[in-house]
Design brief:
Helix content is about 25%, strand content about 20%. The chain has a seven-stranded mixed beta sheet, covered by helices on one side. The chain has a six-stranded mixed beta sheet with strand order 8-9-10-11-12-13. The chain has a two-stranded antiparallel ribbon with strand order 14-15. Strand 8 and strand 9 form a beta hairpin. The protein contains ten helices and 15 strands. It has one domain: Metallo-beta-lactamase, Chain A. Helix 6 packs antiparallel against helix 7.
């Protein structure tokens, strides 16, 4: 598993480590997990991609586990639109339960919308487009239930879950101690998710959680520190290509040590004033930033960013900025004239 891969050099479906397969769904990842003790162990789907992707997910599951072999459950890192798009269809088709953290349940049972995204942070096309991203809840009814309070993962004896909030109230990550494999969700990611071009290219580098949806930066900082302390050998995240080894740990520790400088935006709706949530959903959110996002950014992002993403040109040349690390704001300002919209 190289740490210099790009979208052009990796297939959409790839084996990450034994018992873990990752599927890229346009710009978000989901994972198929099975304990390694036996090929007869049940398997679990972690996250459910974008709306309209149910058929693709089922086909890939059959390619791995064979036909007529549904998962034992679907387990969520969190419930943002790009992680639950095919959830209702898959859960109903397979007739399986869904598990999530208790603080994520209001957004999965129709009780609360998520806090509004902040398109003013991040400086890229994906961030600028975020005002369009769905945030209303889905309603799974009694099909969804809370993860066990003791940290065990249903049907996966080798794994445990950790509460890693900040990006969302009930965000969780999953860790397998035996080989130090981490499924981080969006607690941190391995691509600069705010940038349309970075999402297209998918160069491997550790970044903080996608800024436009992160609602509590103090919690996000603590979550990154918690995951860095695990010293993972492999990290597979909600966005970007999995990373491994010493380079992964070096970049993750760098992110943790300098989180305020390299991850937290200089200003934004939730910077210094987090959204307030509880077990019922959103209680209060800070007001919008006074300065609206410039219309030229929004318009150009709609035309250029979405076009770039959906075309998914796999013939581009690798970019020489692989492994580059610098604060979000400085990176965005320096490259805006080159390719940001």
């Amino acid at each position: 598993m190289p740490n210099h891969a790009t979208r052009a050099t990796t297939p959409d479906l790839q084996a990450v480590v034994p018992g873990v397969w990752g599927l890229r769904n346009v710009f978000v990842n989901l994972y198929f997990l099975r304990d390694t003790s036996s090929p007869l162990e049940p398997w679990v789907l972690v996250d459910a991609g974008l709306y309209g992707s149910a058929d693709k997910i089922r086909r890939q599951a059959e390619a791995i586990f064979g036909p007529n072999n549904p998962p034992a459950a679907i387990i969520l890192t969190h419930g943002h639109f790009d992680h639950v798009g095919a959830l209702k269809t898959l859960a109903e088709t397979w007739n399986v339960p869904v598990y999530a953290h208790p603080l994520e349940l209001p957004y999965l049972t129709g009780r609360s919308s998520y806090p509004p995204p902040d398109p003013s942070v991040g400086g890229g096309a994906m961030a600028a487009l975020s005002f369009l991203y769905p945030r209303k809840p889905i309603d799974l009814g009694s099909r969804v239930q809370a993860l066990p309070v003791n940290g065990t993962v249903p049907f996966l004896a080798e794994w445990r879950w950790l509460h890693t909030p900040g990006h969302s109230p009930g965000h969780v990550s999953f860790f397998r101690e035996s080989d130090r494999t981490l499924l981080a969700g969006d607690a941190f990611v391995t691509v600069q998710q705010e940038s349309g071009l970075a999402v297209l290219e998918q160069q491997q580098e550790v970044h903080g959680p996608p800024a436009y949806f992160t609602i509590d930066w103090a919690q996000a900082r603590e979550s990154v520190a918690k995951l860095a302390a695990l010293e993972p050998q492999v990290a597979a995240t909600g966005h970007g290509i999995p990373m491994h080894g010493e380079e992964l740990r070096r970049q993750l520790h760098e992110l943790s040590a300098h989180f305020d400088q390299v991850a937290v935006p200089a200003q934004g709706r939730y910077v210094g004033h987090p959204a307030v949530t509880d077990e019922t959903g959103v209680v209060a959110v800070p007001p919008r930033p006074e300065a609206p996002l410039p219309k030229w950014i929004i318009g150009a992002a709609l035309v250029g960013g979405l076009g770039y993403l959906l075309l998914r040109d796999r013939n581009g040349q690798p970019n020489s900025r692989a492994g580059h690390r610098e604060p979000r704001g400085r990176y965005a300002r320096r490259h805006r004239d080159e390719y940001e919209f």
